Amino acid sequence: MKKKISILLVAMMSIFIIAGCNTGGGEVSVGIVLPTKDEPRWVQDEARFKAALEDSDYTTEILFSQGSSAKEKENVETLLNKGIDVLIIAPHDGAAAGSAVEAAKKDGVTVISYDRLITDTDAVDYYVTFDSIAVGAAQGQYLIDNAEGSGVPLYLYAGAASDNNAFLFFEGAWSVLQPKIADGTFVIANSSEAEALKDKATLTRDELGKILGQVTTNWDPNEAKNKAQTNLTAAGADLKGDVAILAPNDGTARSIADVFASDGAVTSYLVSGQDAELASIQYIIDGKQSMTVFKDVRTLVQDAMGMAVDILDGKTPETTGSYNNGSIDVPAKQTDVIVVNQDNVKAELIDSGYYEASEFTGLD
């Protein structure tokens, strides 16, 4: 009898151990890899991704690559080992992420490139994005609409050359700025490569790369600050006064704005941005930053998670266009962008519930 009880106990323990292996840590439905925790934008995305699946039977796990392609690949492998069916990834480096997503595709996982396009691989199923060319065009158009007179010094800055979006943002800005550079409204102040190409309306990828090589900030506010200081030190009086600044995002815009504000020979500046970061909204209210391109990540997250749930439910996700990544045309879902300045900051960001009025000072 004792022997039978012992066998029964061993059998029951085995069942519990097996059950524990199947549920301990749990299988994950959707794996999400974001580029860094050091930018407010991605921390906001993390919170919204978590909220998006709260009322769902599906589970998610979010990992950060901290600016390392090696860490990014390791994160993807970790999620694959947890049995994910869908991978959402915002790559640190669009080209370097190829090997990570190829491993996912090999495992039969559907890959969604999020916000930034993964390039030079056919292992990408979908792309969820803001219209990056429209973002750059909005930044450039704001400078055009608000600059006065002609011969306005134009300082150009860009994101990281490893990020395909940086090319798209700059391409969009160049498409509207170039005619105004060619007709003398703006004078390029800090890029000999851009100056050499000022009469060319459409730039090749290599030509864009040459300009980015001179004006990249690598999305790093400190690098942006140092570059702005170097540019202003080298600039003569004719390249100061009232100036226009194409800054690629809010983090770099604030750093660049601080440098230009501290130069006594700069009488006024227009400076673009994007992401509607809380600190930059305060800068806009205070008149230190001119505008930001508001990309409502609530919508982008909803689009990405909606696509993931469609895939998990066996449905074909809705797309609105496609982007060539150098290897294939990737079906894409595009989200609209909004220009925010002092005039509409309350309507777009407070009244919409994106931020609370109490988070700012000086807001009318």
What this model shows, in words?
With 364 residues, the chain is of the alpha/beta class. It folds into two domains: 26-124 and 297-335, 3-Layer(aba) Sandwich (Rossmann fold), CATH 3.40.50.2300; 132-295 and 340-359, Rossmann fold (3-Layer(aba) Sandwich), CATH 3.40.50.2300. The chain has 13 helices and 13 strands. It has helices at 2-23, 40-52, 69-81, 98-106, 132-146, 164-182, 192-196, 205-215, 221-234, 250-261, 278-286, 297-312, 345-350; strands at residues 30-34, 60-64, 86-89, 110-114, 126-130, 152-156, 186-188, 241-246, 266-271, 292-294, 321-324, 329-335, 338-340. It is globular. It starts with a helix and ends in a 14-residue tail after the last helix. The relative contact order is 0.12. Residues 8-25 have low confidence and may be disordered.
Question: What is the secondary structure topology, with strand pairs?
Answer:
Blueprint: H1 2-23, E1 30-34, H2 40-52, E2 60-64, H3 69-81, E3 86-89, H4 98-106, E4 110-114, E5 126-130, H5 132-146, E6 152-156, H6 164-182, E7 186-188, H7 192-196, H8 205-215, H9 221-234, E8 241-246, H10 250-261, E9 266-271, H11 278-286, E10 292-294, H12 297-312, E11 321-324, E12 329-335, E13 338-340, H13 345-350
Parallel strand pairs: 1-2, 1-3, 3-4, 4-5, 5-12, 6-7, 6-8, 8-9
Antiparallel strand pairs: 10-13, 11-12
Helix pairs in contact: 2-12, 3-4, 5-6, 6-8, 9-10
